[in-house]
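FYI - complex with adenosine-5'-diphosphate, inputs then prediction.
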Amino acid sequence: AKKVVIKIGTTSISNDCGGLNEEFMKHVASQIAYLHSLGKEVILVSSGSIGVGIDLMQLGCKPREIPVRQAAAAVGQNILMQKWMEAFSTYDLNVAQILLTYDSFTSRLTYLNLRNSISTLLEYGVIPIINENDSTCVHEIEATLGDNDRLSAMVASKMEADLLILLSDIDGLYDKNPKRHRDAVLLKTVSEITPTIESYGGSPSSTKGTGGMRTKIDAAKICNMAGCHMVIANSSIQNAILKIMEGEEIGTLFL
Ligand code: ADP
């Protein structure tokens, strides 16, 4: 893969009460820097702003009200970017913040502008770091939706990426929620998203993340239509990104 989009889920980037896992961020930056040195084009989609904001504003764990979460996102996004900037500065790489809403994709003009600016950043060797603009957009913030899964698939599709990597707190897609069923079986490869596969995407058990598997399966559909492969893998695996790029079979690969 030459162009790759990497999405870091809330569960991977934050600790239990929302604070950032900076060691993990540094590890991601080191892998991306290595890919960059090989001439790969990498776009990062990073969740985590809401948790950081909640932490800073001392709102306690997991407030549910949407306006409060939007306020927290606005507070947290700066810190999130600051930490990414620090992590990448070790490798002399610049980062750019891009905040998107779904409307960014629906109008041809905004979409073309978006594509031009991301392409230009890549040309200049900058790492674009995308997040949903949670302050103006309620889609993904709502507990039943998103967490950047579909957004990252739309970015991968519009940027004509070869691969989307979703890093999560789970090894991949199982035939049922492994946190609730001990006998759940991990799927290594999914070549077609059948109704059976879709039925595996139950609601998330984690309270930090919001999307669960349903939105990841939706993301796989978007990728599939765009001819982009997708991998779901566990962010706790050492060098997970590099292993996936080298074709090692970790996680679930959606063809
Ligand atoms: P992220 O923040 O990385 O997007 P989510 O919490 O939104 O993570 O989604 C991952 C969670 O989805 C897993 O921790 C697991 O509890 C849940 N889940 C539900 N059904 C499945 C399944 N069939 N296979 C794997 N995980 C599942």
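The first strand starts at residue 3 and ends at 8. The two ends are 13 Å apart (CA to CA).
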